[in-house]
Amino acid sequence: MAPSLSPLRSHHVAVIGAGAAGLVAARELRREGHSVVVFERQKQVGGTWIYTDHVEPDPLSVDPTRPVVHSSVYATLRTNLPRECMGYIDFPFVARSGGDQRRFPSHGEVLAYLQEFAKEFKIEEVIRFETAVERVAPATEGGSGKWRVESTETEKRVRRDEVYDAVVVCNGHYIEPRLAEIPGISSWPGKEMHSHNYRTPEPFKDQVVVLIGNSASAVDISRDIAGHAKEVHVAGRSNPADTYIKQPGYINLWMHSMIERVNKDGSVVFQNGQTILVDVIMHCTGYKYHFPFLETNGSVTVDDNRVGPLYKHVFPPELAPWLSFIGIPWQVVPFPLFELQSKWIAGVLSGRIMLPSKDDMMEDIKSLYATLEAQGIQKRYTHRMGIAQFEYNDWVATQCGCPGTEEWRKEMYLTTGVRKRTTPETYRDEWEDHHLISQASQDFSLYTH
Ligand code: FAD
Known about the structure:
This is Flavin-containing monooxygenase. The chain is α/β, with parallel strands linked by helices.
């Protein structure tokens, strides 16, 4: 006689956010038999990929009472990953007729892809648009595991207070800016802003602009602005102190070491000894994790950008599996990682996949923290993955009983990373990894018809 399988449990799950993470979470939860409500405060799916020319009134985005503009995408933004590599595993990001056919397409093409995904899997029928989650807290003090979710439907001003079995947090982490600390900044007379509020280069015409950061946005925005500004200077904390390099191909773009201080007369002094009169300082210094709606009585905290404790960056042991997070890791290929994390959460909630005991999960987290400390890695890099993402993905995939990252995807990510660093001007339009594109297309034929 065949062994009897225990029936899978179906739960009522709230997903917060209908960006790339929330959409695939909703799909995987429903596939597993759960009932799902997705809360999305914007009018449409796509999260950060919904370009808007609106920016926040506070250019540094530090005022906690400011109206939040979710997207950080600027007008000319093209993806920094090739589309084959970037898409979900079983819903390839292939060129559409009438769309942007480029391999590194514009933000509008990514949005169209996410809209297609939502349509294909009928996700919109479970999304409550223009509905902001304001509070998520344990439903009872005794700890039944259930969650109270308070939300407001903005247009109709309808407030709801509901109870869910589980909550999956997919609210994105590119809205709450981090800023560089600059000695003398309080009396510096120029304008400061964060890249979150950058859209187009025209307002910088004839200005002298300093961008702070070594990230993809500093690289791209500095080049975007250089066509209009008088001078563009990029200050990077990780650059050696004597860095002062004119960028080849530009007459007005320089790389510097970090800013040493700024002065009342409007000047900026770099560690390399250069002093320049500057109109605008733009912080391209990244973002902080921020969960303003979440009340966990201290079970989950954000400390120096470490969200914790989280088992494998997803489950807080104390509240698992009833609270989970998708998309915490960074320096990754996000969509496939979201997809695997979603499968894992869906399977754990149904009882198909087992989590270790609370104590064992805590031990695992402590061991990660100890390893980071031993390697001299600061807390704020806890969720940075880079090359380690593939081992992580494979581990999650093994839990789910599905294949891990394809070899071609790994190689494409690594090759693109090298080209991005060595040829930032051309890597989106010139490449040599044609063999990897063919391997990807072969895999895609399983899913496209
Ligand atoms: P988001 O897209 O931010 O979605 C979160 C959603 O949650 C939003 O729709 C928001 O409205 C909603 N939300 C938040 N709070 C609430 C609340 N309280 N109530 C209700 N709804 C709420 N990735 C790539 O793969 N390739 C790239 O080239 C690339 N370039 C990028 C460039 C920039 C400038 C940025 C900022 C990111 C880039 N990324 C890129 C990473 C990108 O963030 C991810 O691809 C992905 O879109 C993140 O999806 P998400 O669902 O986690 O978050």
